[in-house]
Each structure stands twice: as C-alpha cells, then as structure tokens.
Fold this sequence. Notes:
It is a single chain. The chain is mainly alpha-helical. The chain has helices at 14-23, 25-41, 45-62. The chain has a domain at 26-62. It is built from three helices and no strands. It is elongated. The mean pLDDT is 83.
Amino acid sequence: MTDPDQGSSSGPNPEAVGKVAAVHLGPLLYALEVCAKAMDDAQREEDSRYYRALAKLLAEAGGTPKASEVEL
C-alpha cells in the first residue's frame, strides 16, 4: 500500500501534473521568467535560456491554436 504522504513510487502522474499546470499556467510562466531574469542578472546565460525554453514549451502546450491552425 502506498503512503499518501510519500507519493507514488512509479513517478509523476502526467494527467495530474497537466491539470495543475493548466490551472496555474500564468503564474508558472511568470515565475519561470523571473528565474530567467535572475539568471540574466547573474550572467548565467545558459540557465536563462533553459528557463525561457521551458516557459515556451509550457505556453505552447497550454495555448490555444493559432487562427492559421484552426480548421474553418
């Protein structure tokens, strides 16, 4: 039996993670940009690029399709 306080030993639940990310997408994107800005300020360009790339992936995954991608 799995202890609810210890989580699942099989790894993250993608469906649950997706739901949390979808509900909190705006604040997550903001937090990632704050991290990227801090990395810029610390002259850690590689880390900054990582956080911005991650934010872009989340934004694209959670965004609505562009008008050119919608079938009319």
